[in-house]
Amino acid sequence: MAFEARARVLDTEDLSRIIRRIAHEILERSKGSDDLALVGIRTRGVFLARRLGKMIEEIEGKPVAVGALDISLYRDDVATRGASSIGVTEIDLDTNDKKVVVVDDVLYTGRTIRAAMDAIMDFGRPQVIQLAVLVDRGHREVPIRADYVGKNVPTSGNEKVKVSLEEIDGVDMVEIGEER
Description:
Blueprint: E1 3-10, H1 12-30, E2 36-41, H2 44-60, E3 65-69, H3 78-81, E4 99-107, H4 111-121, E5 128-136, E6 148-152, E7 160-164, H5 166-169, E8 173-179
Parallel strand pairs: 2-3, 2-4, 4-5, 5-6
Antiparallel strand pairs: 1-8, 7-8
Protein backbone atom coordinates (compact mmCIF):
# COMPACT_ATOMS: atom_id res chain seq x y z
CA MET A 1 0.00 0.00 0.00
CA ALA A 2 1.25 3.45 -0.87
CA PHE A 3 0.59 6.56 1.16
CA GLU A 4 -0.96 9.42 -0.79
CA ALA A 5 -0.42 12.70 1.08
CA ARG A 6 -3.20 15.28 0.92
CA ALA A 7 -1.64 17.91 3.16
CA ARG A 8 1.54 18.63 5.09
CA VAL A 9 0.61 19.40 8.68
CA LEU A 10 4.07 20.02 10.20
CA ASP A 11 7.52 20.76 8.77
CA THR A 12 11.06 20.77 10.21
CA GLU A 13 10.72 24.14 11.95
CA ASP A 14 7.33 23.18 13.40
CA LEU A 15 8.79 19.98 14.88
CA SER A 16 11.70 21.90 16.43
CA ARG A 17 9.34 24.40 18.04
CA ILE A 18 7.07 21.61 19.31
CA ILE A 19 9.97 19.69 20.87
CA ARG A 20 11.20 22.86 22.61
CA ARG A 21 7.69 23.70 23.88
CA ILE A 22 6.96 20.19 25.15
CA ALA A 23 10.37 20.06 26.88
CA HIS A 24 9.53 23.29 28.73
CA GLU A 25 6.05 22.01 29.61
CA ILE A 26 7.48 18.77 31.01
CA LEU A 27 10.01 20.68 33.10
CA GLU A 28 7.38 23.10 34.35
CA ARG A 29 4.95 20.37 35.40
CA SER A 30 7.74 18.17 36.84
CA LYS A 31 9.39 21.12 38.61
CA GLY A 32 12.72 20.33 36.96
CA SER A 33 14.38 17.20 35.68
CA ASP A 34 15.06 15.42 38.99
CA ASP A 35 13.60 11.88 38.97
CA LEU A 36 12.45 12.38 35.38
CA ALA A 37 12.67 9.63 32.75
CA LEU A 38 11.57 9.68 29.12
CA VAL A 39 10.54 6.40 27.50
CA GLY A 40 9.95 6.39 23.75
CA ILE A 41 7.70 3.80 22.12
CA ARG A 42 9.40 2.08 19.19
CA THR A 43 10.01 3.27 16.58
CA ARG A 44 9.46 6.99 16.10
CA GLY A 45 8.63 7.65 19.74
CA VAL A 46 12.19 6.66 20.65
CA PHE A 47 13.68 9.35 18.39
CA LEU A 48 11.25 11.94 19.71
CA ALA A 49 12.13 10.97 23.31
CA ARG A 50 15.84 11.37 22.50
CA ARG A 51 15.20 14.82 21.03
CA LEU A 52 13.20 15.81 24.11
CA GLY A 53 15.97 14.46 26.34
CA LYS A 54 18.58 16.49 24.48
CA MET A 55 16.43 19.64 24.72
CA ILE A 56 15.80 19.12 28.44
CA GLU A 57 19.55 18.65 28.97
CA GLU A 58 20.22 21.93 27.12
CA ILE A 59 17.69 23.74 29.31
CA GLU A 60 18.59 22.16 32.67
CA GLY A 61 22.31 21.59 32.14
CA LYS A 62 22.14 17.94 33.15
CA PRO A 63 21.11 14.77 31.32
CA VAL A 64 17.77 13.06 31.72
CA ALA A 65 17.33 9.28 31.42
CA VAL A 66 15.91 8.19 28.07
CA GLY A 67 14.75 4.66 27.31
CA ALA A 68 13.16 2.74 24.43
CA LEU A 69 10.12 0.51 24.78
CA ASP A 70 8.79 -2.18 22.48
CA ILE A 71 5.16 -2.96 23.30
CA SER A 72 4.62 -5.80 20.80
CA LEU A 73 3.96 -8.48 23.41
CA TYR A 74 1.70 -6.19 25.47
CA ARG A 75 -0.74 -5.36 22.68
CA ASP A 76 -4.30 -6.57 23.07
CA ASP A 77 -4.30 -7.81 19.47
CA VAL A 78 -1.10 -9.88 19.68
CA ALA A 79 -3.11 -13.12 19.26
CA THR A 80 -4.64 -12.02 15.97
CA ARG A 81 -1.79 -9.85 14.69
CA GLY A 82 1.16 -11.80 15.96
CA ALA A 83 4.36 -10.37 17.36
CA SER A 84 6.70 -11.34 14.57
CA SER A 85 8.67 -8.11 14.61
CA ILE A 86 9.62 -7.71 18.25
CA GLY A 87 11.96 -4.80 18.89
CA VAL A 88 14.37 -4.16 21.70
CA THR A 89 13.32 -2.57 24.96
CA GLU A 90 16.09 -0.49 26.50
CA ILE A 91 15.12 0.76 29.93
CA ASP A 92 18.36 0.87 31.88
CA LEU A 93 16.89 2.74 34.80
CA ASP A 94 14.92 2.10 37.92
CA THR A 95 11.41 3.40 37.24
CA ASN A 96 10.38 3.18 40.90
CA ASP A 97 9.25 6.60 42.16
CA LYS A 98 10.25 8.24 38.85
CA LYS A 99 8.22 10.69 36.80
CA VAL A 100 8.02 8.67 33.58
CA VAL A 101 6.96 10.42 30.40
CA VAL A 102 5.97 8.00 27.64
CA VAL A 103 6.67 9.51 24.21
CA ASP A 104 5.00 8.50 20.96
CA ASP A 105 4.51 10.04 17.54
CA VAL A 106 0.73 9.67 17.05
CA LEU A 107 -2.07 9.13 19.56
CA TYR A 108 -5.05 7.48 17.91
CA THR A 109 -7.09 4.74 19.62
CA GLY A 110 -5.06 4.75 22.85
CA ARG A 111 -4.38 1.01 22.73
CA THR A 112 -0.63 1.43 22.14
CA ILE A 113 -0.36 3.68 25.18
CA ARG A 114 -2.36 1.24 27.32
CA ALA A 115 0.09 -1.48 26.30
CA ALA A 116 3.05 0.83 27.06
CA MET A 117 1.75 1.48 30.58
CA ASP A 118 1.45 -2.27 31.21
CA ALA A 119 5.02 -2.76 29.99
CA ILE A 120 6.40 0.08 32.12
CA MET A 121 4.75 -1.32 35.23
CA ASP A 122 6.81 -4.50 34.71
CA PHE A 123 9.93 -2.37 35.32
CA GLY A 124 8.76 -0.88 38.61
CA ARG A 125 6.20 1.45 40.12
CA PRO A 126 6.64 5.00 38.82
CA GLN A 127 5.51 7.98 40.86
CA VAL A 128 3.55 9.11 37.80
CA ILE A 129 3.22 8.13 34.15
CA GLN A 130 2.54 10.94 31.70
CA LEU A 131 2.14 10.95 27.94
CA ALA A 132 3.75 13.21 25.33
CA VAL A 133 2.71 12.87 21.69
CA LEU A 134 3.64 14.75 18.56
CA VAL A 135 0.15 14.40 17.02
CA ASP A 136 -3.20 13.65 18.64
CA ARG A 137 -5.68 12.65 15.96
CA GLY A 138 -8.63 11.68 18.16
CA HIS A 139 -10.79 8.54 17.79
CA ARG A 140 -10.03 7.01 21.20
CA GLU A 141 -11.18 3.46 21.96
CA VAL A 142 -9.83 3.48 25.53
CA PRO A 143 -9.83 6.37 28.03
CA ILE A 144 -6.33 7.74 27.35
CA ARG A 145 -5.46 11.45 27.22
CA ALA A 146 -2.09 12.98 26.42
CA ASP A 147 -0.51 15.35 28.95
CA TYR A 148 1.64 17.02 26.30
CA VAL A 149 0.46 17.40 22.69
CA GLY A 150 2.43 18.85 19.81
CA LYS A 151 -0.58 19.35 17.56
CA ASN A 152 -4.18 18.19 17.50
CA VAL A 153 -5.04 16.99 14.00
CA PRO A 154 -8.71 16.02 13.62
CA THR A 155 -9.02 13.18 11.13
CA SER A 156 -11.64 10.84 9.78
CA GLY A 157 -11.32 7.12 10.44
CA ASN A 158 -10.07 6.37 6.93
CA GLU A 159 -7.37 9.05 6.95
CA LYS A 160 -3.79 8.31 7.98
CA VAL A 161 -1.23 10.49 9.70
CA LYS A 162 2.31 9.88 8.49
CA VAL A 163 5.17 11.07 10.67
CA SER A 164 8.57 11.26 8.99
CA LEU A 165 11.67 11.86 11.10
CA GLU A 166 15.16 12.78 9.96
CA GLU A 167 16.73 9.85 11.82
CA ILE A 168 14.69 7.26 9.90
CA ASP A 169 13.18 8.93 6.85
CA GLY A 170 15.71 11.65 6.05
CA VAL A 171 13.21 14.47 6.61
CA ASP A 172 11.09 15.91 9.42
CA MET A 173 7.42 16.33 8.54
CA VAL A 174 3.91 15.20 9.30
CA GLU A 175 1.43 14.59 6.53
CA ILE A 176 -2.21 13.59 6.41
CA GLY A 177 -3.55 11.42 3.61
CA GLU A 178 -4.79 7.98 2.68
CA GLU A 179 -3.36 4.53 2.02
CA ARG A 180 -3.93 3.47 -1.59
